[in-house]
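Dear colleague,

Following up on Tuesday's group meeting, I ran the structure prediction for the two-component complex that the binding team flagged. I've pasted the input sequences exactly as they went in, so you can double-check that nothing got truncated or mislabelled along the way. The structure tokens for the whole assembly follow below. Feel free to forward this to whoever is handling the docking comparison.

Inputs:
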Amino acid sequence: MNLAYRDIRHNLFRFLLTCVGLGLLLGVVLAMIGIYKGLVVDALTTARSPAVDVWVVEANTRGPFAEASRIPGDTREAIARIAGVTSAGSLTYQTVEADHVGGKPRLYVIGFEPGRPGGPPVIVEGRHIGQSHFEIVADRTSGLALGATLKLGRNTFVVVGSTQHQVASGGDPAVFMTLLDAQKLQFELSPAAARVQIARGAGGASRDTVNAVVARLQTDASPTAVADTIHRWKHLSAITQEAQELILTRSLVDRARRQIGLFTTLLLIVSAVIIALIIYTMTMEKMKQIATLKLIGAPDRTIVSMIVQQAIALGVIGFAIGALLIVNIKDFFPRRVVLEADNVMMLGLIVFIVCLLSSGLGVRAALKVDPATALGG
Amino acid sequence: MGQLQGSHPLVRVEHVSKHFGEGPSRVDALRDVSIDIFPGQVVALLGPSGSGKTTLLNVIGCILDPNSGSMELDGERVLENGKWLRSNLRQLRLDKIGFIFQFHNLIPFLDASDNVALVLQLAGADAVTARARALELLDYLEVGHRTSSMPAQLSGGEAQRVAIARALANRPRIILADEPTAALDSKRAGIVMDLLRKVAVEQDAAIIAVTHDDKIFDRFDHIFNLRDGRLELNAAGLSSSRSAG
């Protein structure tokens, strides 16, 4: 006779309600873990999507994400000629606010050279940019549908393709356009400002500036060696892909990452305390019954098994509810929630261990109860 | 009167003493108590609050360690000079003793038949055998129609009968009852006492009850009066039990 099952069945509604409560709590913990992972993944997306080995930026900067970087547009030609480099591409990055359907969505505009590294990695809908001007590929989270038009600067662009999960470290959706369009958007002055510059004698400044040049290397080439070669040019810095990712996670989103990490840890501790309290209370409510069981001869293993089974059932069902909830609503979060199987399993393991330890408290109390307490009122 | 004076006692308590605390705060709950209870007897432990009757019931029920004395239960020496001779007292209780409580103490999440079958399964019976025996007992105690009812759905008298069935499940020959009729009206109290008498006679068992319920005093074969931890003696120097009934 399984006493744990019988007790749960007898108080099914109450037990399920407790499981749902615990599930919501564990759901929040899972969501926080997902948000934490999402923050890191988002931060790395723009750096990883070009799939390159070396980033060339302005000298003494850690650009283009952590710091501003401006280098001449012809740098790409020089980089492409370095031994070990198979291809190179110029890129610009800027954040803009565009007028669209009554709103002002923030967009992360990436200018790239079609056919060279740095463009949208995968088109999930529509096509790649086919013309030199006025076409863009937008991330789905921007809300820009295929065929939609968008005014950016002094030009109107048409959305020809969509990407997925291409966002800046701050969560702004990425929009890809040709380098020429991006340079015009970033560096072209308004007519009035241009007139002032011409009057000051500074109107002839070149617009052929980029934020970074990226390079793909041969498989046997060393990114560090190539970076060292580039360093010899005093006006440039070179950062390997590995170092760039480290800058993004350790510098750009570090505070946010640590903030969420600490909050997640606190939430996990609170959850553990609540689980312990629920299981302990569940056991304490049954003390008279446990005393009766001991009095009529039930061995300790029967009592221990009842408490432990109920604790594990509570943890497993609560965790399943929490996981199911978050898996189903994670896409409604404004920023990406990344639930990785190993993180989910780790939380499941933690919940299981917490339940076991918590049931230990109840078991200890149950084993200490005097069977004589079953006698009398 | 089911006492068989020539037979061996089912419960033999010899010079049992029990005190709580030491020094000035010491309380002697039992002082050199000796009693014999024979098969078929229904006896009461009576006395004012603090007289030691519950302590004595707990010692006989093997749930309280006495400081000195010896005890024999159903022919087995279980206590010698204040030391238990068995290490697993819970198994001893399961084998030899049935308990009936003031408020029935049925497990609330098991129905009537499972409350009875549980004790049998704890003793090693398989589920089918345990259920069959449980149904048989519930029929015997005239609550066979409430086998699937949960304790909360039973009346006080029905619940107490199920509790008696549970106490009888493993065929113990010693039944300890703690205020078995305190929660019942006089009619139902009478029915429960009749049942206990029936059990004592038909199963050759000894029923030992702690009670304050004066409406059932006449239902006992013997009444052991306790006062300040001692059995009260009559003028002949016998415990009141030997001269009562």
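The first helix of chain A runs from residue 3 to 10.

Cheers,
M.
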